[in-house]
């Protein structure tokens, strides 16, 4: 049973983002290898042609399969990329900040509850070393302060 989201959990795919769309491959892996009903995440952010796009995974309200102990009360977001080897591209980072800020504001999730998978589950390394979870939360907080919510 899915409860009202209280957390947003950030992930990376640990796969290099390339010319082909990886979101479908991740979905196939989760379904055919892991035996899940769908991709484990609610959203993904991937480079499509020349632009980063937000891709839909599980519907909000559907329990995720992305972070043991948090699946029933969190939104899982995966950035396609290998952040063990590569830095997070600026445009992907900015789009992730925007998505998470809007989800956080709409669902009343405090920025302290925006976690990297590794923070929610010690022993995990995702999102990997080049994704700064503390800086990400700070950027989300700054975006929330600056956005004109009255015009939303």
Task: Characterize this entry briefly.
This protein has 152 residues and is α/β, with parallel strands linked by helices. It has helices spanning 23-33, 90-107, 117-120, 133-146; strands spanning 7-12, 43-48, 51-56, 74-79, 114-116.
What's the CATH architecture name? 3-Layer(aba) Sandwich
Strand arrangement across the biggest beta sheet: 3-2-4-1-5
* Order of helix and strand elements from N to C terminus: EHEEEHEHH
- What is the oligomeric state here? single chain
Helical segment tally?
A: 4
Number of domains: 1
Largest sheet, strands/sense/barrel: 5 strands, mixed
* The CATH C-level class name: Alpha Beta
Beta-strand proportion: 15-25%
User: What is the percent of helical residues?
Assistant: 25-40%
CATH fold label: Lysozyme-like
Radius of gyration: 15 Å
Task: Tell me the total number of β-strands.
Answer: 5
- Separation of termini? 30 Å
Structural class: alpha/beta
Mean pLDDT: 90
Task: Point out poorly predicted stretches.
Answer: none
Overall geometry: globular
Q: Say which CATH homologous superfamily is assigned.
A: Peptidoglycan recognition protein-like
Describe the structure.
- The protein has 152 residues and is of the alpha/beta class.
- It has a single domain, classed as Peptidoglycan recognition protein-like (Lysozyme-like), CATH 3.40.80.10.
- The chain is built from four helices and five strands.
- The protein has helices spanning 23-33, 90-107, 117-120, 133-146, and strands spanning 7-12, 43-48, 51-56, 74-79, 114-116.
- Strands 3-2-4-1-5 form a five-stranded mixed β-sheet.
- Helix 2 packs across helix 4.
- The longest helix is centred in the middle third of the chain and has 18 residues, at 90-107.
- The radius of gyration is 15 Å and the shape is globular.
- The chain starts with 6 loop residues before the first strand and ends in a 6-residue tail after the last helix.
- 37% of the residues are buried.
- The model has no long low-confidence stretch (mean pLDDT 90).
């Amino acid at each position: 049973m899915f409860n009202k989201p209280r957390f947003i959990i950030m992930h990376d795919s640990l796969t290099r983002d390339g010319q082909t769309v990886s979101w479908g491959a991740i979905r196939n892996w989760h379904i055919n290898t892991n035996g899940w009903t769908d991709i484990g995440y609610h959203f993904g952010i991937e480079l499509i042609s020349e632009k980063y796009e937000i891709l839909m995974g599980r519907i909000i309200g559907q329990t995720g399969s992305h972070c043991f102990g948090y699946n029933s009360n969190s939104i899982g977001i995966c950035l396609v990329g290998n952040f063990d080897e590569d830095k997070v591209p600026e445009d992907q980072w900015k789009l992730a900040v925007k998505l998470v800020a809007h989800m956080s504001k709409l669902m009343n999730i405090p920025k302290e509850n925006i976690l990297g998978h590794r923070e929610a589950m010690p022993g995990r390394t995702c999102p990997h070393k080049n994704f700064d979870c503390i800086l990400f939360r700070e950027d989300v907080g700054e975006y929330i302060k600056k956005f004109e919510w009255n015009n939303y």
